[in-house]
Amino acid sequence: MSSREQWGSNLGFIIAAIGSAVGLGNIWRFPYMAYENGGGAFLLPYIIGLFVVGVTVLALEFVIGHSTKGSAPLAWKRISGKFEWLGWLSVFTAFVITTYYMAILGWGVAYLYQLLFIGIPADIGGFFFNNILQISSGPADLGTFPILSLVAVVLAWVVTYVIINSGVKKGLERANKIFMPLLFIMTLMLVIRGFTLPGGIDGILLYITPDFSKITNLKIWVDAFCQIFFSLSLGFGIMIAYSSYLPEKTDLTKSSLIVALSNSFYSLIVGFAVFGTLGYMAFEQGVPITEVVQASITLAFVTFPTAISLMPFGREFGILFFLCFVIAGISSALSLMESVTSAIIDKFQINRKKTSFMVTVLGILGSLIFVTQAGLYWLDLVDNFISNVTLPLVGVLEAIAAIWLFKGEKLVEYMDRLSPIKLGALWKVFAGLITPLALLAFLGFQMYSLIT
Ligand code: PHE
Ligand code: NA
């Protein structure tokens, strides 16, 4: 189709793909996971996972999108009429994830508003649980809807809508070209601050000091593989859609390496900011650092704000942190929404304006579930199911279908033809054999832990 939209440049595509990959998961999930799984020792399974499943599947999705010029469902349909459903499975997953990703993003927006216009809340836990989540109002009660987060979630949706509505080059590419450099500079400022706060270095040491005794524990490998898959936005049809907008001449091998490495690099350094701040907090409160490290989402919304409330220029520092949070989140939300939007455009030939509007309205309705007090419960459930089961399953199916059932050999040639770095043969061994085996072992382990 000659009318398909295109990126303005290869760089624009790479920046947008990094924008998708670098998200909330890098900021609150990675540092915590690394800490919990043996600190620096986590890097070993993480780096192995980065190549075995990360780069391999990322390259696979790039080749699929670029060679078929279609979003996930259309791409699969063009590979084999029988596999269109696999594309829709990715797209459906993307839609579900968008609804709760936007809710978390909305909480970030709410904090930003609070810090910018009101100040650091006197009672931070109270602010998060009462004003944002309204959990204190008792059992699920739709009568008391958390207004602040509701407005913030709708706002996050509207911003995303406006950008997607403007198209690939004028919307996605332009937004990411502004967001990404900004995010990088602001993150560096947070990192420097993390290193220079009193107690900061202790926090950072806790984060990176390897505890190799954990390496034989299967859980650390599972966590690492899981984190990589989610972190690179794989299995959502995103990277397929993004690469379908590339011009003919492009280097997919190089692009997948750059995107994967940049994403991991970002995770690593943002951890310095997070743990430096936690170290400072422990120092101020005179407690062991291990006591201030919190699992899950409260790390960003309760622990971190508490830390900034203790420091000079805490408010400004907090604004910087939540700006990073929101920018990283929006650039990822954009990619999720683009996966859904492009699939509908390709399938039904409805124009972008109508499609993006429709997706936004449905999406806001979906997000309402996660904004309520019952939201946290649903969020955990959906998040676990999707990252532990759906994504790896899509990954296995993609790899087996593409390499074994259909044009495996052609895809390898295709990839090598476009790049001076000839990794096709090696890639085939990974994508066709090692990656699916690793993911199957992973899925087996998940099933096993489900029944025991
Ligand atoms: N990669 C994003 C992150 O690490 C999460 C994400 C997944 C974003 C899927 C978009 C799609 O936070
Ligand atoms: Na990521």
UniProtKB/TrEMBL annotation:
Domain of life: Archaea
A cellular component term, taken from the record's GO annotations: membrane
Location of the protein in the cell: Membrane
Keywords attached to this entry: Membrane, Symport, Transmembrane, Transmembrane helix, Transport
Residue spans crossing the bilayer: 12-31, 43-64, 85-105, 111-133, 145-164, 184-208, 220-245, 265-283, 295-313, 319-345, 357-379, 385-406, 426-448
Topology of this chain in the membrane: Multi-pass membrane protein
Molecular-function annotations in GO: symporter activity
Major subcellular site: membrane
InterPro entries for this protein: Na/ntran_symport (IPR000175), SNS_sf (IPR037272)
Family: Belongs to the sodium:neurotransmitter symporter (SNF) (TC 2.A.22) family.
Annotated protein name in UniProt: Transporter
Organism expressing this protein natively: Methanococcus voltae (strain ATCC BAA-1334 / A3)
